[in-house]
Design goal:
mainly alpha; 0% strand; 214 residues; 8 helices; 76% helix
Amino acid sequence: MKSARMMATRGAAQKLWHNRFEWWMSIFREGVVAGTLGGAIVALWYFLCDTIVGRPFHTPALLGAIFFNGLHGHDVGAATVAPVLSFTVLHFAAFISFGIASAILIAAAEREPLLVLGALMIYACYEVSFLSFVTVLDASALGAIGLWKIAAANAITLVTVFGYFQYRHPQILPRFVKRWAKFDAEEFASPPVLAARVRRLPEVRTGSIPAGIE
């Protein structure tokens, strides 16, 4: 009897561990796919923009030379294989990291839908860090790339990544809207607490103050 109970307990623990492992692996896979999609769509966007002006792979070559070779924008000529491949690896590694972090927050948003905003904050921090780092290394690089291209790439990335998460979790957006509306209603309906916490001090009669104290 005792042996059967121990085997049942061990089997339940193994099943729980297996379920948790599968849950984390599904989150990891979603993050990798989302990050890869975002990185690929941005790489394709810059490739099309560079090809239209007759300089294919100029953007990854420029950023690769700045990041890894310490060059400046005006020192970069024709695109070569080494800086393009180096920056492409860094590019996809950064996007996959963003995708995994967003997937974790999306999974947590199954319990609290407002955590979806955390994924937007992660992407905003990622973009600010990237732009700041490029500006420190070579401020002219942002002008060479084109701010409108960067803004368009950010918009495309958000639509791609969060469109994928919405496809994987169809109830996320409706639950977020519902939770946000409920949050606003709670804030609007809550009475002010400051006045309720103010206590009136007892009145002090002048006759009760000792006289002659100097």
